[in-house]
UniProtKB/TrEMBL annotation:
Coiled coil: none
Name of the protein in its database record: 6787_t:CDS:1
InterPro entries linked: Prp46/PLRG1-like, WD40/YVTN_repeat-like_dom_sf, WD40_repeat_dom_sf
Positions of region (Disordered): 53-75
Domain of life according to the entry: Eukaryota
GO cellular component: catalytic step 2 spliceosome; precatalytic spliceosome; Prp19 complex
Any Gene Ontology biological process: mRNA splicing, via spliceosome
């Protein structure tokens, strides 16, 4: 799972989980709690996980080094 800054498009935190034996890793559904500070996921291994942003991150520890692409792609 990755947490992105929606204004800049920068991925500032990546989180990994280990799927339970005999299951594939995947997310069926996700939603934020009422405070919008935690993300709740329902995963394919029949677990519910609660994620939160790392409270110790700062612009110095996770600098934005992302530059937008000016090229337009036609699909």
């Amino acid at each position: 799972m990755a947490i992105w800054d929606w204004k800049s498009g920068y991925k500032f935190q990546a989180l990994e989980t280990t799927a339970q034996p005999e299951f594939e890793a995947g997310i069926f559904a996700c939603t934020f709690d009422r405070t919008s500070l935690r993300l709740i996921t329902c995963e394919t291994d029949k677990t519910i996980k609660i994620w939160r942003e790392d409270p110790n991150t700062t612009p110095e520890t996770h600098p934005i080094q992302w530059k937008p692409s000016l090229a337009r792609t036609r699909f």
